[in-house]
Write a structure and sequence with these properties.
Blueprint (H helix, E strand, L loop, with lengths): L1 H47 L3 E5 L1 H7 L1 E4 L10 E3 L23 E2 L5 E10 L5 E13 L6 E7 L2 E6 L12 E2 L5 E10 L4 E10 L14 E9 L4 H10 L1
Parallel strand pairs: 1-12, 8-9
Antiparallel strand pairs: 1-3, 2-5, 4-5, 5-11, 6-10, 6-12, 7-8, 7-11
Length: about 240
């Protein structure tokens, strides 16, 4: 009888240990699923606003009367503008972009490219200035290695790209300032009544050596912001995030 009691005691202990292991496993799986769900929700929030957004520092409006808009017939204060998202685009050549791409207001995406035209205007009474920064918020599967970002400012286009795999700028482009900051510009002598027109075009350049099947499924999220001032620490902040 004593032997049987011992065997039963051992069996109970083993059963209890197995139950604890099962609970730990279930709890671990639940935590992992919750973390994956949270990551999915965060990514959907990031990308639901589109691939490209424009933000205006409220100080530019409240202190200087500067506004942004994408419809010249509807000039009201807005702190953000949203370009329509593109669910999917294939690689193309810059040669395929329409010649009139800078002449259509608002979102005017085409086959395999994002295009958005908007304006910034000084409606105030004093001559002012502003800083503009184009920033990459998120990249999936290194798609930024073959992305082209062309910015038309008052009809003058400049194309930006990540530095080439050989360490040299891609042909016909200006390199990103770093992996997060595409370009930085200081607009001075912005007089009352002055209007700057911007068109942003984003596409995947098929002639880029980095444009391979490895980029399939990649995504990019970026925005352009207009600020009342710029501090050197901002660039350092982006460097630390890389």
């Amino acid at each position: 009888m004593v032997g049987m009691s011992h065997e039963v005691e051992v069996s109970v202990k083993k059963l209890s240990k197995k139950k604890k292991i099962r609970r730990i496993v279930r709890l671990t799986v639940l935590v992992i699923l919750l973390l994956l769900l949270l990551a999915y929700i965060v990514m959907r929030i990031i990308y639901n606003n589109g691939n490209f957004t424009i933000t205006l520092d409220k100080n530019l409006y409240f202190e200087r009367g500067i506004i942004i808009y994408d419809d010249p017939d509807y000039k009201v204060f807005r702190s953000e503008l949203y370009a329509k998202a593109v669910d999917y685009f294939d690689n193309i050549s810059y040669k395929w972009l329409p010649e009139n791409i800078d002449n259509i207001d608002g979102s005017h995406n085409g086959d395999n490219y994002i295009a958005y035209t908007f304006y910034i205007e000084n409606t105030g009474t004093d001559t002012s200035d502003y800083w503009s920064e184009t920033i990459i918020d998120d990249v999936i599967k290194n798609i930024d290695t073959a992305i082209r970002i062309r910015i038309y400012k008052n009809g003058e286009p400049t194309t930006y790209a990540k530095i080439g795999i050989n360490g040299n700028p891609e042909e016909g482009t200006i390199p990103f300032q770093n992996d997060k900051l595409v370009t930085l510009d200081h607009r001075e002598n912005f007089k009352p009544g002055d209007i700057d027109k911007y068109t942003i075009v984003v596409w995947l350049e098929g002639s880029d050596i980095d444009c391979t099947d490895n980029l399939l499924g990649g995504e990019i999220k970026l925005h352009m912001e207009f600020n009342s001032e710029f501090k050197e620490i901002d660039v350092k902040k982006y460097d630390k995030e890389i």
